[in-house]
Amino acid sequence: MTDWTEKLPEAAQEYLKDRRLDEVECIIADMPGIARGKAVPASKFARQEYFHLPDSIFYQTITGEWGDAAGEDGFIERDMILKPDLDTATAAPWTGDWTLQVIHDAYDRKGNPIEYAPRNVLKRVVELYRKQGWEPVVAPEMEFYLVARNLDPAKNIEPMMGRSGRPAAARQAYSMTAVDEFGPVIDDIYDFAEAQGFEIDGITQEGGAGQLEINLQHGDPVKLADEVFYFKRLIREAALRHNCFATFMAKPIADEPGSAMHIHHSVKEIETGQNIFSGPQGGETDAFYHFIGGMQKYLPSAIAVMAPYVNSYRRYVRDHAAPINLAWGRDNRTTGIRVPLSGPSSRRIENRLAGMDCNPYLGIAASLACGYLGMMEEHRAGPSFKGDAYEGDEDLPRVMGDALDLFEEATTLHDILGPEFARVYSIVKRAEYEEFLQVISPWEREHLLLNV
Questions:
Q1: Under a CB-based contact definition with an 8 Å cutoff, are residues 60 and 77 in contact?
Q2: CA torsion, ordered 236, 242, 247, 251, to nearest 10 deg
Q3: Could you report the per-residue pLDDT of 238-281, keeping only the tens digit for each?
Q4: Architecture of domain 10-118 in CATH?
Q5: Can you give the pLDDT at residue 1?
């Protein structure tokens, strides 16, 4: 192995042991969280310190169109400087040759981080915590569906065919038999994850037909966002090997539950390693209540980041395993903000609003930003909710347009995430939303064509 490979994480070195590295995929997450970049021969990667991509990758909508976000100089597609973070090097075990993936960070020609690059947004928020002497800790949960191959956008998405030859069944939450139906796909997910050095905390069947959940160990927010970014690709590749699709849409099937990316939060004091949500006697601290208070105040303004598509808002349905308001409760899965059962050292706060369709860097950054503002501004949480929160009032935006209105007004939140990010994100999402509004749906043709 060459010198640079000796600096790689242990899992990547193990993957390459006694093998010749053929190719390196130099990648970065765009606004939707899609991997963009270049594949280069390993010999070339060993010689390059950086590579270039145009800044326009961050102005692109999910459909491939562009938002008019280029700024005063116009749409000149200025090159960014992308530098590798070798700590992120990991295998691409589904490829036909020996390939590594390496996440890169984006800088301008003066060496300043590109403010609207999603990984830089999250790094910015984490650094704000560290300046206060705090270390934020997160644990994401990933929900997704394994569905039948769908080549026709006009056709409804259907559950995949299980090992038994029958379509995956709904309402089988936590069923081991249901998990066994997807055994071959899950086996590949485990194998790929092991090759990439990722530790899965568990896989469970969720309530939807073909819906699974993967939990990850808690840790550093940037590292965990990297893992979710990698996992989305890993899971898709495992599914394709077995003639099905993995989808991370928030609401892929009309009558089934949506898919969330629940985010568990705790905060440690850097100097002592103590969880600041717990006091010396194990009780809940002001910081604990302020973090919840910040979420209750700022999450509505951040929803456009955590629920980034028109489909995202179909998930927030009463009595359908997704929150409809900002109530918080202890061990209560009907609330938008949940405090799971735990001891004082592992006391944490779970944000249940983020959809699995969000960019993991941006979703985690926005969630941390809300809690940070709560602690800095000392927002006190309202009383904890007792009972079924679905019986309460709805207080989340129900359409993308309303969510963008709230986001665009939230200048305090912009200051935490980065004003330039907020500007670019809003323009790109407005362009995407306007494009959607030009699409005439089957419902409109069926009910309005001859009746109005």
A1: no
A2: -170
A3: 999 998 999 999 999 988 899 999 999 999 999 999 999 999 99
A4: Roll (3.10)
A5: 45
